[in-house]
Write a structure and sequence with these properties.
The protein is α/β, with parallel strands linked by helices and 460 residues long. It has two domains: 178 residues, DNAb Helicase, Chain A (Orthogonal Bundle), CATH 1.10.860; 268 residues, P-loop containing nucleotide triphosphate hydrolases (Rossmann fold). Helices cover 49% and strands 12% of the residues. The protein is built from 19 helices and nine strands. Strands 3-2-4-5-1-6-7-8-9 form a nine-stranded mixed β-sheet, sandwiched between helices. Strand 7 and strand 8 form a beta hairpin. Helix 1 runs parallel beside helix 3. The longest helix is centred in the N-terminal third of the chain and has 29 residues. The chain is globular, with a radius of gyration of 24 Å.
């Protein structure tokens, strides 16, 4: 079977950038970098080297093997950037043919994209999706392909953008537009109006507030119920613990019982088996490697997209991600990481949900409700986010002690800010819709299967 990429063409593009940089031809460097993205490259090392070149250019640093090696020391493969860049610079004697190299790289990228679209369409048909939904999803995916003439246009007239927007409104009216990923919680879905692709949604809260629970529940809802592939980077929590939480959440089995199986009854064992069956073959992937950088996240996400498709990413959590290169301050480093995740969302045309910590200022405020300005480490997190959700549970109140949790949407670029109330069921590691009155312990126990019931038959 023929390989769906060209190492020679990818090397040609990168070598051309290095040659233009060595000749101090800033205009040519801009032209080449402007026609490509790291997502056009098949090899992760090549994509990472391209990103290092872009960073050099953004910082007005001349591009050569030494400077890119200073910006980024190692590649995803572990090889030294400076050695790899020097090798490519020597392989390509001139930048004269860069357009031909770039066109070849982009053509192979489009071919891979088309094959992925065909695979996704086939999967939708096998899952019983309506034919109009399959066609609409495929058309939307095809519309994302860029021109191949080597002169990609990044601008259009306003009336053309208005026409695209009007077409989307019409598709929504006819019910054929692709649906945004949902959260699985009715009131929160009404508030957020869909987790938007190409954008970053921040879920923030104090330690123990339930932000991880909410993010995992969103990914679980989309993967288990909707059968859309999601990828979770669990930097703090091991994969086995996520597995236990999923059993508790889907099956309504107490986490305490799962920790102490001697207390499990026959119905608990049955619910655990049912939970595993519900999630069987569900495309929810977890990477629990505790050492992550923007480059490793991008490489893993691109691998997952190639092998399984990808509809969304969760990063738990942002400040545990290490910078590819240490900044002058932690705030600057986190800001660069935030920018990299936003770029990833745009490149892959998927939503990225990133978790963030809050400082303690909100606890000193009357009402104790957090604000966007309470985000720790960097104001860039707030600036880059399209939507910010604050998980607020006042443990000093009776309502908070009973699991009553307010989700405050303090920023949103596509909907009005506001809040909603959800019920946190900590013993099952999940949130549930709030019915309007605080349930008793007996009522919570009796309704433990209500959430899992939504997933009944999802794998059929």
């Amino acid at each position: 079977m023929r390989e769906l990429f060209s190492d020679e063409a990818e090397h040609g593009v990168l070598g051309a950038v290095l040659q233009a940089g060595l000749q101090r031809d800033a205009g040519l460097v801009e032209d080449i970098l402007g026609q490509m993205t790291s997502g056009d490259f098949y090899r992760d090392d090549n994509a990472a080297l391209f990103d290092a070149m872009v960073e050099c250019n953004d910082r007005s640093i001349p591009i050569d093997p030494v400077t890119v090696g200073h910006v980024r020391r190692t590649l995803p493969s572990g090889d030294l950037v400076i050695a790899y860049a020097a090798e490519l610079a020597s392989k390509v004697p001139s930048a004269a043919n860069w357009k031909a190299y770039a066109k070849h790289v982009k053509e192979w990228g489009v071919i891979r994209h088309i094959i992925d679209i065909g695979g996704q369409a086939q999967a939708m048909v096998q899952e019983g999706a309506p034919t109009d939904a399959v066609i609409a999803a495929s058309q939307q995916a095809m519309a994302d392909l860029r021109d191949l003439d080597g002169e990609t246009k990044s601008f259009k007239r306003l009336d053309q953008w208005m026409g695209d927007a009007a077409d989307l409104v019409d598709e929504k009216h006819r019910g054929v537009a692709p649906k945004w990923p949902a959260t699985g919680l009715d009131k929160l879905d009404e508030l957020v109006q869909g987790v938007r692709p190409k954008k970053v949604t921040v879920i923030a809260g104090l330690p123990g507030s339930g932000k991880t629970t909410l993010a995992l529940q969103i990914a679980q809802h989309n993967a288990v119920k909707e059968r859309k592939p999601w990828l979770v980077f669990s930097i703090e929590m091991p994969g086995e613990e996520l597995g236990l939480r999923a059993i508790a959440s889907l099956g309504g089995v107490s986490l305490q019982k799962l920790d102490n199986p001697s207390k499990m009854g026959e119905d608990d064992w049955a619910r655990m088996g049912a939970a595993v069956a519900q999630a069987l073959e569900a495309p929810l992937f977890v990477c629990d490697d505790p050492v992550q950088t923007p480059a490793t996240i991008r490489a893993t996400a691109r691998q997952c997209q190639r092998e399984h498709g990808l509809a969304g990413i969760v990063v738990d959590y942002l400040t545990l991600v290490r910078g590819d290169r240490a900044g002058r301050s932690r705030s600057e480093e986190v800001g660069k990481i935030s920018k990299a995740l936003l770029q990833l969302a745009k490149e892959m045309a998927i939503p990225v949900i990133e978790l963030a910590q809050l400082n303690r200022e909100s606890t000193k405020r009357v009402g104790k409700k957090p604000q966007s300005s309470d985000l720790r480490d960097s104001g860039e997190i707030e600036a880059d986010a399209s939507c910010i959700l604050m998980v607020h549970r006042d443990m000093d109140s009776e309502e908070g002690q009973n699991g009553l949790t307010e989700i405050l949407m303090t920023k949103c670029r596509h909907a009005r800010v506001g809040s909603c109330i959800v019920q946190q069921e900590g013993q099952y590691g999940r949130f549930a819709n709030f019915s309007g009155s605080l349930p008793s312990d007996d009522e919570v126990e009796a309704g433990r299967g209500s959430y899992a019931q939504r997933y009944k038959g999802a794998g059929r």
